[in-house]
Amino acid sequence: MTARHIVLAITGASGALYGLRLTEELLRSGIRVTLLISRCGFTVLREECGLDWEGAPEAVTEKAWDYFAAAISMGRDETVFEPVISYYAEDDFIAPVASGSSAPDAMVVAPCSMGSLARIAAGLSGTLLERTADCMHKEGRPLLLVPRETPLSAIHLENMLKLARLGVRIVPAMPGFYGKPETMDDLVDFMVGKVLDQLGVEHLLFQRWGV
């Protein structure tokens, strides 16, 4: 059986760690991941996570492979993990994910900036990230956005409402505290778990209410 294929996009909103942690869990679940990173997304990865990934597609793919292989294999002695991950530049409109005939099973934008959200809501395709989101719309595939902004303006809210009415899942970066989080990782895991729930991917990242 062919492995599920999910596109994970990281934009310039604060919270790149959400995208990294989510990618890690998807790969751990045996899901093939295509990584898309906006120009500002590379800046946030560097400033917030200390990851200088910007460069040619081959170099970005290699750095991502090394990062996720190390993260997933950490503490494991019994298996050698080989993530199935690829990266395409934002101007690569001949990438497979740019075509509806090769649309992935789902796409997640985490974190999603208000600029990216607005362009997705307008159906623009100025970058590969936006074109892929447009493909998800027209092919009826799941599209999840993890917006990270505060406070929210009326424009932000109207764009999210428009997308929600079109079937896009809006999963804002609003971690819950009923599980009594003790670390920042606990808060990140809560949000990542909420996205995984929407994708139908099993996980044990947070304590469910009443369980």
From TrEMBL:
Keywords: Flavoprotein, FMN, Prenyltransferase, Transferase. Dimethylallyl phosphate binds at Y178, K194. It catalyses: dimethylallyl phosphate + FMNH2 = prenylated FMNH2 + phosphate. SUPFAM superfamilies: Homo-oligomeric flavin-containing Cys decarboxylases, HFCD (SSF52507). The keyword Transferase applies. Flavin prenyltransferase that catalyzes the synthesis of the prenylated FMN cofactor (prenyl-FMN) for 4-hydroxy-3-polyprenylbenzoic acid decarboxylase UbiD. The prenyltransferase is metal-independent and links a dimethylallyl moiety from dimethylallyl monophosphate (DMAP) to the flavin N5 and C6 atoms of FMN. This is Flavin prenyltransferase UbiX. It comes from Geobacter argillaceus.
